[in-house]
Structures are given as C-alpha cells and as structure tokens.
Amino acid sequence: MTGSTLPTQTEIASSLYGCWRLFLGDETGLQYFRRDLDGLWSALWALVFAVPVYVLKIALDLGGESVTLLGFDGMVIEAEILVLSGVIYALAIYYILPALERESRYFDYMVAYLWVGMAQVYIHTVPSILRAIGVIPDQGASFMAVVLVLAMLWWSWFMTRTALNVNGGQAGIILAGTVIYEFILAISLSRLL
To answer: Which of 67, 81, 135, 157 could make an S-S bridge to 130, C-beta 3.0–4.6 Å?
Structure first.
C-alpha cells in the first residue's frame, strides 16, 4: 500500500547522497531521489527522522532550567510543529506550483525539499552539540551557526532551482516565500498547539 512503509536503508542512503550532491552544486543529485508518490511518502518520513535531533537542538540551545520550563509537553509541541509544517507545506506547494507552471515538477521538488530539510536539521544541530560539550565557546557556536544557515540557504536555493527547473531569480523568490511561510506557520502553529 502506498505510504504504509518506512523508506528502506538503501533509499535513505541514496536520498542522503542526493542531498550531498545537491549541496555540492551537482544538478544530477536529483536522480538519487525516488521522485514519485511513493517517494513522497518516504520523504515525509524524513520529517519524523528529524524530530529527535530537532528536539535535542532545542534542549541544547535552551539549557537546563529553560528545558525544564518548556517541559515534555513543550518538546512534543515543537516536534508537532516540525512535522505539521512539512505536511502543510507539501499541500500548499501542490496548489502553488500550477500558478508557476511547474506542477509537473512537484515530486522532484517536494521529495528533495523534505530530504534536504532533514539533513539540514542534523547539520544545524552540530554547533549546539559542540558548544554543549565544551569544544567551542558560545561565540564560536553562534558564528558557526550563522555560516551554516548561509550555506543551507544556498543549498535550498540550488535545490529549488534544480528541482523546479527555474532560473536563479525565480528560485530566490520561491525560497524567500518558503522561509516567510515557514516562519509564519511556525508562529501560528505554536499558538494553536
């Protein structure tokens, strides 16, 4: 049945390699993703795979007392926001792409978007871990986080340009809209949940 099973280890490895190729600026990175309905269901699992590390990052960034104040319920809400925002985005972009005359690229875009997003959650956690274990000071972790965010914006821009087969300016506009959407949705969901 479509969407009923987890992605296989081979599919996960292939998708992560596709993420890596896209990060390196290689347009052929898309070929490593399963870009169909079953691939979308597998890629939606990437949101679930990102949850533990996402919650860890929040806990590390908040520190001891703040984590206690946020509590288990707060961590569950943050995890729900991550998963719900990805699912809602998949639905929203399904209706937006026809207006951009890119509906045929839906699976190319969404599958890559979800796997790249999962990889970015893991990578963005590295500065928090290094700071927490004392490898780098707070300022070093902050600087590293800014550099990683800039790299991830480029990565997302390149993935968008490649997956939707649009020019750089169009990819930039779509990425800016996506960032604004994610910000607004996260705030809205945090108030609802």
So the answer is: 135
